[in-house]
C-alpha cells in the first residue's frame, strides 16, 4: 500500500470532522459500492459492552459521499499506523483501498484507503429502526466521548458539505431535544 506515493484516506464519519492528522489536501469525494450506516455497536470509543453506542460503518451497496484526505508520502506510514490504532481497536472494520471520485471539478479518481464494516463481527448491528438508534446513541459514552456528540458533529459536517441522509438527520433532530420528546412525536411512536 505504501509505495512512496501520497496516501489518500476517505472519511465518511468522524474522520470528516476529527481526522487526527494534517492532510495536505482535503476534497469532497464519493465511493461506490458502499453506503454510510449507523451499523456498528461501539464498545470502546462511543460506548461500552454493557451500554453500547452506535457508530458509522460503510456497509455493502449504494454509494457514499464524504471527504478524501491526501497525506504526503513522508507522513503516510505514521498516518496509517494512527488510523489502524484508531479504527481497528476491535477489528470490526476491514481496511480497503478502492477508487474514490474526487468532487473538485478535476475529474480525478484516486485510490483511497477506507474502512468497511465486517458483517460477521459481533459488533455489526445491521439496520436498526430509528427508536433503537435513538436509544443506543443516547446511552453511549466511551473513551472518545458521548455518542450523541459523535452523531451531531457528523450530521452537522454532512450538512455543511451538502450531504443529505434522512435517517441521520432524523436521529440528529431527536438528539437535539430532551429525552422523551421528539420534534414530531415521542421516540416510542417513531416508525
TrEMBL record:
Its EC number is 4.3.2.7. The keyword Lyase applies. GO terms for molecular function: glutathione specific gamma-glutamylcyclotransferase activity. GO terms for biological process: glutathione catabolic process. Pfam families: ChaC. Keywords: Lyase. It comes from the Bacteria. InterPro entries: ChaC, GGCT-like, GGCT-like_sf. GO terms for cellular component: cytoplasm. This is glutathione-specific gamma-glutamylcyclotransferase. The lineage of its organism: Bacteria, Pseudomonadati, Pseudomonadota, Alphaproteobacteria, Hyphomicrobiales.
Amino acid at each position: 500500500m505504501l509505495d512512496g506515493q501520497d496516501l489518500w484516506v476517505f472519511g465518511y464519519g468522524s474522520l470528516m470532522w476529527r481526522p487526527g492528522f494534517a492532510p495536505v489536501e482535503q476534497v469532497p469525494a464519493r465511493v461506490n459500492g458502499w453506503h454510510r450506516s449507523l451499523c456498528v455497536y461501539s464498545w470502546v470509543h462511543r460506548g461500552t459492552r454493557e451500554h453500547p453506542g452506535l457508530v458509522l460503518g460503510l456497509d455493502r451497496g449504494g454509494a457514499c459521499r464524504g471527504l478524501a484526505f491526501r497525506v504526503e508520502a513522508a507522513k503516510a506510514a505514521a498516518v496509517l499506523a494512527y488510523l489502524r490504532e484508531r479504527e481497528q481497536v476491535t477489528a470490526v472494520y476491514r481496511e480497503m483501498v478502492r477508487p474514490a471520485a474526487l468532487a473538485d471539478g478535476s475529474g480525478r479518481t484516486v485510490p483511497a484507503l477506507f474502512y468497511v464494516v465486517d458483517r460477521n463481527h459481533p459488533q455489526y448491528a445491521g439496520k436498526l429502526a430509528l427508536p433503537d438508534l435513538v436509544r443506543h446513541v443516547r446511552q453511549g459514552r466511551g473513551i472518545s466521548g458521548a455518542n450523541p456528540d459523535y452523531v451531531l458533529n457528523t450530521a452537522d459536517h454532512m450538512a455543511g458539505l451538502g450531504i443529505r441522509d434522512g435517517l441521520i438527520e432524523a436521529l440528529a433532530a431527536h438528539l437535539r431535544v430532551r429525552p422523551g420528546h421528539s420534534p414530531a412525536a415521542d421516540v416510542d411512536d417513531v416508525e
